TrEMBL record:
Organism listed in the record: Micromonospora chaiyaphumensis
EAL domain boundaries: 24-286
Annotated region described as Disordered, given as residue ranges: 280-301
Protein name, entry field: Diguanylate cyclase/phosphodiesterase with PAS/PAC sensor(S)
Residues of the full protein shown: 433 to 733 of 742
């Protein structure tokens, strides 16, 4: 017998069970209490217009401020939270906190019309209470529905049938927007584009990475660039917005702009930062010369 890390749990000793597995389950076991103790924080990453450089939205990205391990990224605990089902409660917290922050920015800088993007795990999209959870977050915080955009991956969307498909339509009926996250890396059965009320495609990092602007793309026969070109045309033909993810260089931003991509997100435009930094950036944009940043007219979807 061996005592698993923390919380007095006993498990049959298994030499195959790696130290990493044990650390993983210890982390999972601590998630619910961490949520109750308020150890999760949201950072926000700017999504910027490729036309005029204004910040049109921010994506809420959750982090765990662990008392001993420091700031832990979502890749280390979102999967665990999905497996244990905690994602429903954690996701509800993320939604409400993101709406609360977005509403406070809206009150301070109404002209900016800054949208907030919130990631929705597959398990959340399947939760029968999701429409109620979203409606309640909007109602409690006062954030107008059109300033909230939910990001779902292709696989999360593909799994939707019956009830949850109806839920996505009900969410769109609330007036919020839906975006497909990491577009192009999932199962990509494009049939869902016909039957879902989607407003935006977020082009996955790997396609953007292939656009180098330093001649390196010549080696790849400009293939990534052609894919991006085709996906942007597809999106615009369907009257959807396109955001390029993981934009890391000015050359990429410039190429994406000439390919008519609408918005970009990535280290080039700024990393995920605490809410206070977003407020400072809004203040800077308001003080800047020219017209205040505006959200482009909403397209039909
Ligand atoms: P995602 O939604 O695709 O988020 C974008 C990720 O790309 C973020 O990682 C962001 O920090 C990272 N990124 C930003 N700029 C760059 C760049 O220039 N280059 C590259 N290569 N990457 C960049 P992060 O914050 O570690 O989040 C990872 C994933 O965790 C997210 O991917 C999302 O799927 C998930 N996640 C984060 N927050 C939440 C949440 O509140 N709920 C749910 N369900 N999932 C979340
Ligand atoms: Mg990360
Ligand atoms: Mg996302
Ligand atoms: Mg993404």
């Amino acid at each position: 017998w061996a005592k698993a890390e923390g919380r007095g749990r006993w498990a049959v000793y298994d030499p195959e069970r790696s130290a990493a597995d044990i650390a993983r389950s210890a982390l999972a076991a601590n998630l619910p209490a961490a949520l109750d103790r308020g150890e999760f924080v949201l950072h926000y990453q700017p999504i910027v217009s490729l036309l005029d450089g204004s910040m049109v939205a921010v994506e809420a990205l959750v982090r765990w401020q662990h008392p001993e391990l420091g700031l832990i990224g979502p890749d280390r605990f979102i999967g665990l939270a999905e497996e244990t089902g905690l994602i429903v409660r954690l996701g509800a917290w993320v939604l409400r906190q993101a709406c609360r922050d977005a509403e406070s920015w809206r009150r301070a800088y109404p002209e900016a019309r800054l949208m907030v993007n919130v990631n929705l795990a597959a398990r959340q999209a399947d939760d029968p209470a999701i429409v109620e959870t979203v409606a309640e977050a909007l109602q409690r915080t006062g954030l107008p529905a059109e300033l909230l955009q939910l990001e779902l991956t292709e696989s999360a969307v593909m799994g939707t049938a019956g009830e949850s498909l109806r839920a996505l339509h009900q969410l769109a009926d609330l007036g919020i927007r839906l975006a497909i996250d990491d577009f192009g890396t999932g199962y990509s059965n494009l049939a869902y584009l016909r039957r879902l009320p989607i407003h935006c495609l977020k082009l996955a990092g790997p396609f953007v990475e292939g656009i180098r602007g330093d001649g390196a793309d010549v080696v790849a026969d400009h293939r990534d660039e052609r894919i991006v070109d085709a996906l942007v045309r597809l999106a615009h033909a369907l009257e959807l917005w396109v955001t390029a993810e993981a934009v890391e260089t000015g050359e990429q931003a410039e190429r994406l702009r000439s390919l008519r991509c609408d918005t970009g997100q990535g280290r080039w435009f700024g990393p995920p930062v605490p809410a206070a930094d977003i407020r400072r950036r809004l203040e800077g944009e308001e003080g800047a010369q020219g017209t205040p940043p505006r959200l482009p007219e909403q397209r039909a979807g």
